[in-house]
């Protein structure tokens, strides 16, 4: 009877390993499935943000406000998807994916903050208050710089772990 138990234990153990690796693989697949959605929302948000900045600089403030609203919507959508991807990364117990997704969350939050500051600046410019408007522009630029720092950190993670990012 002992001889039959050992193979059964080995088979059960092997099935557990396959199940765990399947969960890890499905978590990575979940990240891969969401990543293009996140990327598209960030690209669209960046495009709206840059257009809003251009319009604010031209004092086309209503158009700038509308574009900033659209940017904020895109960045918020990216954040929602990134939160799901972060959950997948944490479930996979892969520290590289988890760090990447945490960096991405900070990057997106910084873009959201930059956009909110730009909206605030446009509001002040509409009121002909360029002092406060310019103050919020400075804050928007600061948040966008922070976002780029985390984007660079993720590029470094990718270059240091090419087998994880295909």
Notable characteristics:
4 helices; single chain; mainly alpha; 166 residues; disordered N terminus
Can you offer a commentary on this structure?
The chain has 4 helices and no strands. It has 166 residues and is mostly helical. It has one domain. Helix 1 (2-57) packs antiparallel against helix 2 (61-92), helix 2 packs antiparallel against helix 3 and helix 3 (95-126) runs antiparallel to helix 4 (130-160). The relative contact order is 0.11. It comes from Methanobacterium bryantii. This is Lipoprotein.
Gist?
The chain has 166 residues and is mostly helical.
Which helices and strands, and how do they pair?
Elements: H1 2-57, H2 61-92, H3 95-126, H4 130-160
What overall geometry do the principal axes of the alpha carbons give?
Answer: elongated
Strand content: under 5%
Overall strand count: 0
- Helix count equals 4
Structural class comes to mainly alpha
Task: Tell me the radius of gyration.
Answer: 22 Å
- In N-to-C order, the SSE pattern is HHHH
End-to-end Cα distance? 48 Å
Helix content: over 70%
- Domain count: the total is 1
Overall pLDDT = 85
Query: For the report, how would you describe the main beta sheet?
Result: none
Poorly predicted tracts of residues: 1-25
Protein name: Lipoprotein
